[in-house]
Design brief:
The complex is a heteropentamer of chains A (255), B (249), C (346), D (413) and E (317). Chain A is built from ten helices and twelve strands. With 255 residues, chain A is an alpha/beta fold. Chain C has a single domain, classed as ABC transporter involved in vitamin B12 uptake, BtuC, CATH 1.10.3470. Classes of the chains: A alpha/beta (255), B alpha/beta (249), C mainly alpha (346), D alpha/beta (413), E mainly alpha (317). Bound molecules: adenosine-5'-triphosphate (2 copies) and magnesium ion (2 copies).
């Protein structure tokens, strides 16, 4: 059977009179890293929320590894292997950073997959190490700076050991040096392998990002949204040349 | 100097976030603060605008997290380190905070009006509103949307717009470009430059080093609560170590 | 013999390495010992009664903390669990003839049921909405109690049920041992993996869901656990007082629990327990000034909170212990360096 | 070694009920001590009162610890007081465990005395001091209802008098409502409905509108809690064309007039004492002294006085000991006069002791009182015959019942 | 209202609608219910608006709100009874004194611990208890009453309604109107609403959030006092009277949606009608009116967890 890894069909979401996501259809494969770009308010975050089940679509289907996931509970979807981050970071503020990640490690999916790993804490630590904030593991999450919070978000998502990782602006607020590191880590994660006790089969990814210069380095394919509609779908090189994308999103001069 | 910071130190429960820091911004400058994540840039701005002191006051009786603040901050020739945050704002030192923070359950228009809270002149408010709308047409399209439901970038626009609604002498903006699409980002930078050219002094935190260095008159590089370098964009870019370790270029 | 020696040695080392290093642990151990030894020194039934009731309410306050403090499901209607526990125990005893050791746990199960019944509709509510909604449940139940006086005894309640045990001292031991046991269990729960999830749900429920945790299940678990412990305390209360009446469902009861818990410091378990052991006897102590009793009580609560808004026992603990800034291990306040990582503490 | 008799007075001391308990007891102790004390065998022992605030309206737990404290700490010999039934049940258990005689002054529920019959050995130390139980209360108030009904029928020419029942939601009112629903037709009147506001309702205009719509002439009230005040006040203000009789405990108090701002005029209720009314030769002295001492008419919780002076003191003197086991058999068989009438204790149908007060002509009967322009006047028993053969009872100081003028205006055309 | 229609529908046809008398009675019944509902709704509305205001701004669940209302009532009692002034003066004095008291309590006990929600909550409970005790010590627990501002009643469509009740209704409308203007049309209103959302950022707009919170507390407590002045003449005065309206007040506020004045207003009338319906249609169960109203609140919240007019969104962006 040639079932795609993730298949989205006619996904639509309205907010009052506003159509945030309009009839979006695409599919992606297990080995892809997909970039999702578009102007502000194009519906990127909404699309990710629809996939993770936080929002319910008004119409359309999402099939993940052959199973319909629209209508399932968020935690079911996560346990099927889709993890996501929040654009506006939502850490557990009064918990130590390590506990933030341990929550993800406690999800049925991570528990099952890491059966041979006895120590949750060690696993959580590895996720933090991956995101580069392991030195602050015992601090309260409320003490983190904006950029570090972003990394915590990523660590939390990675700790569920997903098949598909949805990253919403993973580089937002990171300084250039750190963005570099983060981009490299993400790339490495996609390649698969082991990070300490954290096991990664190299998840497929959908990355929403406005920092194209780094995004281009890690994605194989880009989808462009505008006013909820998909206006382009192609390799990075094709996208930057697409006049509609340039007009709606890139503007002249910027890459 | 319009803003002068001398030997400022900030402790959050034994952790020293700002370490004996001194800096200054002259009238008419556009100064940029750069540095790695967690360097203390946002904390510095919060300390200058009185938010750290405010936080210290309201958490005074908690069991943990003593906040301590030392040093001198003066603005427009007067010391402001003992002045309450809202009074500082009245003197014309405006901060557009990190992480956008709109008044979530209020409409877009109300948010903008809150930004012009201190302005008395109705015409001027209308005028400013027009300018903000011109910069961010999205906001004009939906003045009545509850701001918590805006998209991330839209909220960022709202936060910048809100700061622009007032009449600052010194405008501090904390990472205005996060979450903005490239097209808009360029526009925002242009607008900031425009504001600066109107004679408003600007203090900017930004990660987008390559863009800001082109417009800033002076830059500070912050790391671990200390200023480790200072100079124009060109000067800084010449320093190889700085380029590699702090600016990531 | 060797085995005994081994365990003794192990106990000794636990005491030396785990207990004696931290003053708070020493205090807790002394507290356990004190409670267990009280009847050896006094047979004053009044004193024993106070301590018995205090223990019963300590369970209640701790169970509130489990639900509202840890899981963040603010419950202003905790009297519901207490009342359901008391009423079910009383009904089972009176009409089913089951002795207290059976009715009390069954009462706890009754309260679990109540926890599920209110927990399920409350799943979607949060924060203040939840708090103010839960406030309504005991009042509605009270309406039912009044509406079916044949079963519930109306405002008289169900009286004349079996005594908890034969004597005051036995009552005392039952209440104290159950209290110590249950509070230890609650503390263990909050210290476990489940506890982390409870904490996280309090902080941000949606983020927990996106971490792949079935929050519905955990919230219901919190409601049931808390209900169970509160129900047990209700059952013991009913058998100790020999009456289960509508006063167990009153708003003031719900408020009282909140006062105890917050006064002691929420999200600690030991805080609410300690607070009950301070405030309940205080109320009795103030009898010598009968007229001003409640006024004094209010004043004490107000003043203490004014200076220790995080709760009395958190404040105290903070005074006698310091957290190492590096490894976050707690140390006695007199130490200069961390006992584990030897970082400077000042 | 002790030479005083310690009597614990337990009640909600911040409320009128508890204040009544304490006042009555204080008067009793002063009177006894002025005479030198109680003769216990060879010794004369003074009475010492110990006050305990049971706080029972707010917390039953408090009530029980107060009782325990009285017994364990203060080592009292006897306890009088108690009001809220739920609390009294719990306190009763403690007193009985410790074999202390507990004379309940305030709670009317039958269950308290039924326990004595069911388990005499344990509960024999409990006695009812005041008021008599709710079925007698009911019976008395039906007589009042009948009396007022007859007056209305004759003076206003109403052929079929309609009665609305307004009873607070409480256990003790249930049997009374049931009884009233059968008794009212029996008295040739018509019951038009039952309204049951909450015992602490503060606004009953809705209920009153509904009652007015039912065209009732009489509102048979069964109130013991605060709802009695707003009910009477709002009915008076709205000039609801129906008279109120029955039980309204709040209307028994002197403060009622002020609390209703005079709108409680013409409200009638059952009562134990009224100024200028004498059930027997003891009444006047008690009421007058009480009024002089405390500035208000005694209500039934002040019967702690008779419980101590006429009840306990005499029994102790007769027994010559403080041993409760010796006192109980003497006390339960005594028949003695008290300011509110003659006290005797009942047995149940099987002849078991109930320690319940006896009601009826020649014993306790209570009064029917009505507010008439700021004063509480008694209109019953006035030439009352319980049965055709029974002796006619009239207490000293009776006045005629008054019908509110707006009713006269409405019906007398 | 559904209840009435059910009742109408259930009537046997022959007896029900043919009978003029019965139909007339039905009409009266509905009028009765409407008027009673409006009146008790107004009382709830007055209480709830003040409570909602301080919650909306400062996130303070002010349990002592009704205690302030009680203090105002005692104040009026003293001024009219002990000093013999006209009730109007009493009202003015009470509002001023209680507002001051509220501000002082806020400054002393609440402001210093504002960050600690739990502590604030029980501080307000303790305050309420303290007021209750102080009033109990001064005035004892006896029931007292205060005079009405306007005496007498008026017959509206066959139902007797106190002028005072009509006044309650009018005051509720007036307060609603004034507050609405205050909140939406004035700078203070803007400041109040901003502070409610984010205290820290409010500072950055130049809003003195501490003073705004204090002023809101003043307004809120002043409203409680005004409520006391118009509502308490209808009922009795005693130190524990604050407990009873508390529950209904909170129910109204959550039903309407926290912080929404419109919601509180509407919620008050919904619960008022619910109570009236119970009293008229199930007189034997009149004591259940509180329970029924609370059940309605819970039902509504199950469908709309944010109340009728609350703002609610699952996700922050
Ligand atoms: N609950 C809501 N009610 C009304 N409109 C909404 C709601 N949620 C989102 N929107 C609107 O839907 C549009 C899409 O939002 P979305 O967050 O998906 O944008 P985005 O592509 O992520 O933008 P950005 O890059 O700025 O984050 C926005 O215009 C937003 O204002
Ligand atoms: N309450 C706190 N207690 C202890 N440390 C804190 C606290 N708040 C912030 N910090 C620490 O202070 C440092 C500076 O934080 P700040 O937010 O100022 O960084 P920043 O330079 O703005 O970083 P970013 O670019 O990521 O926004 C961080 O390392 C952070 O961990
Ligand atoms: Mg987005
Ligand atoms: Mg920052």
């Amino acid at each position: 059977m040639t079932q795609s890894f993730l298949q989205i069909k006619g996904l639509t979401k309205n907010f009052g009179g506003l159509r945030a996501v309009n009839d979006v259809t695409f599919s992606m494969e297990r080995n892809q890293v997909l970039g999702l770009i578009g102007p502000n308010g194009a519906g990127k975050t909404t699309l990710l929320r629809l996939i993770t089940g936080i929002l319910k679509p008004d119409a359309g289907h999402v099939c993940f590894m052959g199973k319909e996931i629209v209508g399932r509970k968020t935690w079911d979807i996560v346990n099927m292997g889709i993890a996501c981050t929040f654009q506006n970071m939502r850490p557990f503020r009064r918990l130590p950073i390590i506990a933030n990640v341990m929550v993800s490690c406690l999800s049925p999916r991570a528990m099952k997959r890491g059966e041979w790993v006895k120590r949750l804490e060690a696993k959580a630590m590895d996720a933090l190490e991956f995101a580069g904030i392991s030195d602050m593991a015992r601090e309260k999450a409320s003490t983190l700076s904006q950029g570090d919070l972003k990394r915590l978000e990523v660590a939390r998502a990675v700790a569920t050991e997903p098949e598909l990782l949805l990253l919403d602006e993973p580089f937002g607020g990171l300084s250039p040096a750190e963005t570099d590191l983060m981009a490299k880590s993400i790339r490495r994660l996609h390649k698969g392998g082991r990070f300490g006790r954290l096991h990664s089969e190299g998840p497929a990814m959908i990355i929403v990002e406005h920092k194209l210069q780094w995004l281009m380095k890690i994605v194989d394919r880009i989808i462009v949204l505008n006013f909820g509609n998909m206006i382009a779908d192609g390799t990075p090189d094709e996208i930057v040349k697409d006049p509609r994308v340039i007009e709606a999103y890139l503007g002249k001069g910027d890459t | 100097m319009l803003l002068e910071v001398a030997n400022l130190s900030v402790w959050y429960d034994k952790a020293m976030l700002i370490n004996q820091l001194s800096m200054g911004v002259d009238t008419g400058e556009l100064v940029c603060l750069v540095g790695p994540n967690g360097a203390g840039k946002s904390t510095l701005l919060r300390a200058i605008t009185g938010l750290v002191a405010w936080e210290k006051e309201i958490t005074r009786r908690s069991t943990h997290g003593d906040i301590a603040l030392e040093g001198i901050v003066s603005f427009d020739g007067e010391r402001i380190d003992q002045v309450a945050a809202h009074e500082i704002v009245k003197r014309g030192l405006i901060l557009c905070p990190e992480r956008r923070r709109p008044f979530r359950e209020m409409t877009v228009l109300d948010n903008l009006m809150a930004g012009s809270y201190l302005l008395k002149d109705k015409d001027q408010i209308r005028d400013n509103l027009g300018k903000v709308y011109q910069l961010f047409p999205v906001l004009q399209d939906r003045p009545n949307q509850i701001s918590g439901t805006l998209s991330g970038g839209e909220q960022q626009m709202l936060a910048i717009g809100r700061a622009l609604m007032s009449k600052p002498k010194l405008l501090c903006i904390d990472e205005p470009s996060t979450g903005l699409a490239p097209l808009l980002r360029t526009e925002v930078f242009q607008k900031i430059r425009g504001i600066h050219e109107l004679g408003i002094t600007v203090l900017l935190i930004e990660q987008e080093v390559s863009t800001v260095f082109k417009m800033s008159s002076r830059n500070y590089v912050l790391s671990s609560g200390k200023i480790i370098a200072e100079g124009t964009g060109e000067q800084l870019l010449q320093n190889e170590i700085l380029r590699k370790t702090y600016l990531g270029l | 013999m060797a085995l005994i020696l081994f365990y003794l040695r192990k106990l000794f080392s636990v005491i030396k390495n785990e207990v004696l290093v931290l003053p708070s642990r020493v205090v807790v151990v002394l507290f356990f010992l004190f409670l267990l030894l009280v009847p050896l020194f006094t047979k004053d039934t009044y004193l024993l009664r106070i301590f018995t009731l205090t223990s019963i309410f300590a369970i209640l306050a701790a169970s509130w903390d489990l639900l509202s403090g840890f899981t963040g499901q603010m419950n202003f209607g905790h009297a519901l669990f207490f009342g359901v526990g008391a009423y079910s125990a009383a009904l089972l005893n009176k009409y089913g003839g089951i002795p207290p050791w059976g009715t009390v746990p069954l009462g706890g199960l009754g309260a679990v049921l109540a926890g599920l019944i209110i927990g399920i509709p409350c799943l979607r509510l949060r924060g203040t909405y939840l708090a103010l909604t839960t406030l309504a449940f005991p009042i509605i139940l009270m309406g039912l109690v009044f509406a079916f006086p044949n079963i519930t005894g109306g405002e008289l309640g169900i009286s004349g049920i079996a005594r908890l045990a034969g004597s005051r001292v036995a009552d005392y031991y039952i209440a104290v041992v159950v209290m110590l046991g249950l509070c230890t269990i609650m503390w263990k729960i909050t210290d476990s993996k489940t506890g982390i999830i409870f904490h996280a749900i309090r902080e941000d429920e949606l983020a927990v869901r996106t971490s792949g945790i079935n929050t519905t299940r955990y919230k219901l678990l919190a409601f049931s656990l808390s209900g169970f412990f509160a129900g047990i305390s209700g059952g013991i209360y009913a058998h100790f007082m020999r009456i289960a009446g509508p006063s167990t469902l009153e708003v003031s009861m719900s408020f009282q629990v909140v006062i105890w818990a917050i006064f002691g410091g929420i999200v600690t378990i030991y805080g609410p327990v300690g607070a009950v052991f301070v405030l309940f006897p205080l109320m009795e102590f103030l009898r010598f000034w009968q007229e001003y009793r409640i006024l004094m009580f209010a004043a004490v609560v107000l003043l203490i909170l004014l200076y220790m808004p995080d709760g009395l026992f958190r404040w105290l603990r903070d005074k006698i212990e310091k957290e190492c800034p590096r490894c976050k291990i707690r140390n006695i306040a007199t130490r200069d360096t961390c006992r584990i990582c030897t970082a400077s503490l000042d | 070694g002790q030479d005083t008799i310690k009597i614990g007075v337990i009640g909600p001391m911040k409320f009128v009920q508890g204040i009544g308990h304490w006042n009555g007891a204080t008067m009793a102790a002063e009177e006894i001590n002025a005479k030198g004390g109680i003769q216990v065998g060879p010794r004369k022992m003074k009475v010492e009162l110990v006050q305990a605030d049971s706080n029972e309206f707010l917390s039953i737990t408090d009530a029980t610890t107060a009782m325990e404290r009285l017994i364990a700490r203060d080592k009292v010999h006897f306890v009088v007081g108690g009001f809220r039934t739920e609390a009294v049940l719990a306190m009763q258990d403690i007193a009985m465990e410790n074999k202390k005689i507990f004379i309940g002054v305030g709670a009317a529920h039958d269950e308290l005395c039924l326990r004595v019959a069911k388990d005499y050995k344990t509960y024999k130390y409990w006695f009812r001091g005041s008021p008599f139980n709710s079925s007698f209360l009911g019976r008395t108030s039906f007589i009042h209802l009948g009396t007022v009904g007859a007056i209305l029928r004759h003076s206003l020419n109403i052929p079929k008098v309609k009665v609305a029942i307004a009873a607070e939601k409480a256990e003790w009112t249930e049997p009374m409502i049931k009884a009233a629903e059968t008794a009212i037709p029996g008295m040739g009147m018509e019951a038009v409905g039952v309204w049951r506001p909450s015992a602490v309702a503060t606004d009953v205009t809705a209920e009153l509108s509904a009652i007015q719509r039912s065209e009732a002439h009489i509102i048979f009230t069964i109130f013991s809690a605060s709802v009695g005040i707003p009910f009477a006040r709002q009915a008076g203000e709205l000039k609801i064309p129906a008279v109120q009789v029955g039980i309204n405990v709040e209307a028994q108090k002197d403060g009622f007039w002020g609390a209703t701002r005079g709108m409680g005029n013409y409200v009638a209720t059952m009562n134990t004492y009224a100024r200028g009314v004498e059930s027997n030769e003891l009444t006047k002295a008690f009421v007058d002294t009480y009024v002089k001492r405390f500035g208000e008419t005694p209500t039934y919780t002040a019967d702690t006085y008779s419980a101590i002076v006429h009840g306990l003191a005499t029994t102790i003197e007769q027994a010559g000991t403080l041993d409760p086991d010796k006192l109980v058999p003497i006390h339960e068989t005594r028949v003695y006069k008290s300011p509110s009438g003659t006290v005797a204790y009942l047995k149940d149908a099987e002849g078991r002791h109930l320690h319940e007060l006896r009601w009826g002509p020649g014993f306790l009967t209570a009064l029917g009182v009505q507010w008439q322009d700021g004063e509480l006047k008694a209109f019953w028993p006035n030439k009352w015959k319980a049965t055709p053969e029974a002796p006619e009872v009239t207490y000293k100081g009776m006045v005629p019942y008054k019908i509110p003028p707006w009713m006269v205006e409405k019906f007398k055309k | 209202m559904i209840g009435i229609y059910l009742e109408l529908a259930c009537l046997p046809a022959g007896r029900g609608f043919g009978d003029w008398n019965l139909r007339y009675n039905m009409a009266l019944l509905i009028i009765d219910i409407v008027i009673s509902g409006l009146i008790s709704g107004s009382v709830f509305a007055l209480l709830a608006i003040g409570f909602s205001l301080i919650f909306g701004v400062a996130r303070i669940v002010n349990i002592a709100h009704t205690a302030f209302y009680m203090v105002a009532a005692y104040c009026i009692y003293v001024v009219t009874h002990k000093m013999g002034f006209h009730p109007i003066w009493a009202m003015v004095i009470a509002i001023i004194l209680v507002t001051l008291l509220g501000i002082i309590c806020y400054k002393l006990f609440i402001n210093p611990i504002r960050e600690h929600e739990g502590a604030v909550l029980i501080a307000t409970i303790a305050l309420a208890m303290a007021f209750q005790e102080v009033m109990g010590l001064i005035f004892t627990g006896t029931y007292l009453s205060v005079p009405k501002l306007i005496n007498g009643y008026h017959v509206i469509l066959g139902v007797k309604v106190f002028y005072q009740q009509i006044l309650t209704f009018c005051v509720a409308l007036l307060i609603m109107g004034v507050l609405w203007v205050l909140l939406t049309k004035t700078k203070l209103g803007l400041a109040i609403r901003s502070t409610a959302q984010d205290r820290e950022v409010a500072n950055l707009m130049g809003i003195n959030e501490a003073r705004v919170a204090m002023m809101t507390m003043g307004v809120s407590v002043g409203l409680a006092a005004l409520t006391g002045a118009v509502v308490v003449p209808l009922t009795v005065l005693e130190p524990h009277m604050w407990m009873h309206p508390l529950i209904m007040m909170m129910a109204v506020v959550v039903l309407g949606g926290l912080g929404s004045l419109k919601g509180s207003f509407l919620g008050a009338y919904i619960l008022g009608f619910a109570e009236a319906l119970v009293v008229f249609l199930a007189p034997m169960g009149a004591f259940l009116k509180g329970s029924v109203a609370l059940s309605i609140m819970i039902l509504v919240l199950l469908i709309r967890p944010e109340g009728l007019f609350g703002v609610y969104f699952e996700e922050e962006r």
